[in-house]
From TrEMBL:
The keyword Glycoprotein does not apply. Signal peptide: none annotated. This is Hydrolase. Keywords: Hydrolase. It comes from the Bacteria. It comes from Kitasatospora aureofaciens. Residues 23-251 form the AB hydrolase-1 domain. The keyword Nucleotide-binding does not apply. SUPFAM superfamilies: alpha/beta-Hydrolases (SSF53474). InterPro entries: AB_hydrolase_1 (IPR000073), AB_hydrolase_fold (IPR029058), AB_hydrolase_sf (IPR050266). The lineage of its organism: Bacteria, Bacillati, Actinomycetota, Actinomycetes, Kitasatosporales. PANTHER family: CIS-3-ALKYL-4-ALKYLOXETAN-2-ONE DECARBOXYLASE, MONOACYLGLYCEROL LIPASE. One of its GO terms (cellular component) is membrane. GO terms for molecular function: hydrolase activity.
Amino acid sequence: MPTITVGTACIPYRIVGDGPDTLLLVHGTGPGSGMWDAMLDAFTDRYTVLLPDLSGSEAAEDDGAPLTLETLAEQVNAVIDDAGRGPVDLLGFSLGAVVATAAAALRPDQVRRLIATAGWISAEQDEYLRLSMATWLSLADDPTAFGRYATLTAFSRGFLNRIGREAVEANTSYMQPTPGTLRHIALDLALDLAPLLPRVQAPTLVIGCTQDATVPVENTRRLHAALPTSTYAEFDTGHIAPAEEPAAFVKTVRDFLAAA
């Protein structure tokens, strides 16, 4: 697995598949790039997939300083440079959607097409979002409550009932209050994407989730409205549309990327 040094951080990334085009997947708040593993087979027929683990994820190493949006965006762009496969198609989820958008703004030459799923501009624009993130951060001393809150806000009520109690309880252990995850949430609260939005040049698809209790969909619609050349799609799911509607999510992504 390649590992690169970016500032004070050692950032590993995986390379999966050997397709002619390149797709880089940017993970959201939490453990790291493993969130994408269940759908990699849906892309590797066409794409060589790059999966970085950014600062705050379990696999990355750095000095533990507070994270900034620019820091994580720089890490994404450094992976593209190191892999030597740019410009790439860039898909980010949640915090990863914000980071991917920032990466596209800072290095327009690196990104062919951009997909931002369940992203936002700033928690200061939505008191619900700000309070929700602050509440999650306040549960750091109770790992059980921290994981339950993450599960409760990540999925729609219908999906949780559909998968059943055993799967729901198993899911609550996925998100834990590690130092890195807490740094991610602090960044979720503090970031402001607005100054970078005018610099995005790549054709962009913004994807929102109508039942999103983590990042209410109005925030994602606001991100779309702030990107005049973007198109918009919406899923009737909770925050993690790739988990609730994987086939439809993959089709939407592939259709947009194929329309070059």
